[in-house]
Write a structure and sequence with these properties.
Elements lengths: L9 E3 L2 E3 L3 E3 L14 H12 L4 E8 L18 H14 L4 E6 L35 H21 L4 E7 L2 H6 L20 H14 L5 E9 L11 H14 L3 E5 L15 H9 L3 E4 L8 H5 L10 H9 L4 E4 L1 H5 L3 H6 L19
Parallel strand pairs: 3-4, 3-10, 4-5, 5-6, 6-7, 7-8, 8-9, 9-10
Antiparallel strand pairs: 1-2
Helix pairs in contact: 1-2, 3-5, 5-6, 6-7
Length: 364
């Protein structure tokens, strides 16, 4: 299939990209004490050098006591900001564009049993398995969290990033407010309907918009599935999805990053549109698709140890050409091979390096 659309420019507000390929955010845990170092800068620089359209960084956390679940996840405050400034400079020196993914992990615990943040933030003190494990966030906690997201957004613009992405997916804090299982609040931050449960995310978006101004792009990443709860649903119908997404767009989201484990799976019966396709249809704003693009197998199995090899991207090209979505996020394939974009463009996709879990143990 033609690569013309994939390698066509994309522009929104102050953001101009040479192609439609986005490096998906992937946690790497190579920032000692939460401060990204030269190795982290080099890692992102290599992807910029080889023509990734937009780099989304790994999740980087706001200034809250329990905002991260692994010690070496990078911070987005304090001493870490100097490290991020070096990352931005390195990427821009190669002509690349980069946005930080701004994050609060909420109730989701990391793999390091020796690192357990306290006190944990979650809307109702309920973890993803439905068990009560903490106190609900107070109004003061919520206000401080919103302010911390806004401060991070303002710092991103000040450091020279090209956009920001808010992580509102996969069962992390923002997503916990969306989901009826984890948000049982009976105040302004909860509600019976998904539209009511968007208020926390909308407040964050509005605060971030105030911090960055009208022309700086804000992306929000969303998902139906949660870590370890892959059949979770926020929206069971297109009407429910519209009630979920429209308030986020109205609050300032410019691009919706629609996370699926397998991008080709339809979101609702009766249509082959995936999540990103429905999100664009219902809101009219640009969307990013993601989920096992360019490699065999899906990413949960890959991170669990299943090796993957390069595969054709005809199906994602077909959907992109059809206008289902605007941008394509690629994770493991670009993690495995910094030259993936160039190999795809030159018809050498079969030469791209496959993925295996051992690659997570190094930055290259």
């Amino acid at each position: 299939m033609s690569l013309d659309t994939l390698f066509s420019p994309f522009a929104l507000k102050s953001l101009s990209l040479p192609n439609r390929i986005v490096m998906a955010p992937m946690t790497r845990n190579f920032s000692p004490g939460g401060v990204p170092n030269q190795a982290v800068a080099d890692y992102y620089e290599r992807r910029a050098e080889h023509n990734v359209g937009l780099i989304l960084t790994e999740g980087t956390v706001i200034e809250r006591p329990a905002s991260k679940n692994e010690a070496n996840i990078p911070n987005f405050y304090g001493d870490a900001l100097d490290g991020w400034a070096k990352v931005v400079a390195a990427v821009h020196a190669k002509g690349g564009k980069i946005a930080p993914q701004i994050w609060h992990t909420g109730a989701v615990l990391g793999g390091d049993a020796g690192y357990r943040p306290t006190p944990m933030d979650m809307p109702s003190g309920i973890a993803l398995d439905g068990k009560t494990v903490a106190k609900p966030m107070s109004d003061a906690d919520i206000a401080d969290t919103i302010a911390a997201f806004a401060a991070a957004a303002g710092n991103a613009k000040r450091l020279g990033f090209d956009a920001i992405e808010l992580h509102g997916a996969h069962g992390y804090l923002i997503d916990e407010f969306f989901w009826s299982l984890t948000n049982k609040r009976d105040d302004a931050w909860g509600g019976e309907t998904v539209g009511e449960r968007t208020r926390f995310a909308a407040a964050i978006l509005k605060a971030c918009r105030a911090a960055v101004g009208p022309d700086f792009p804000i992306i929000i990443r969303l998902s139906q599935w949660k870590g370890g709860v892959f059949d979770a649903k926020i929206a069971y119908t297109p009407a429910e999805m519209e009630a979920w997404l429209k308030p986020l767009v109205d609050a300032g989201a410019d691009i919706l990053h629609c996370s699926q484990r397998r991008f080709w799976e339809p979101e609702f019966d009766g249509s082959d549109l995936n999540f990103a396709g429905w999100a664009k249809k219902l809101t009219g704003v640009p969307t990013i698709t993601v989920g096992s693009v360019g490699l065999s197998g899906e990413f949960i199995a890959g991170f669990g140890g299943e090796a993957s090899h390069s595969v054709a991207i005809d199906e994602v090209l077909r959907r992109l050409d059809r206008g289902d979505f605007d941008l394509v996020a690629v994770g493991r394939a670009i993690l495995s091979d910094p030259e993936w974009v160039e190999k795809i463009r030159s018809g050498r996709g079969e030469e791209a390096r496959g993925f295996n879990r051992a690659l997570l143990g190094e930055l290259f």
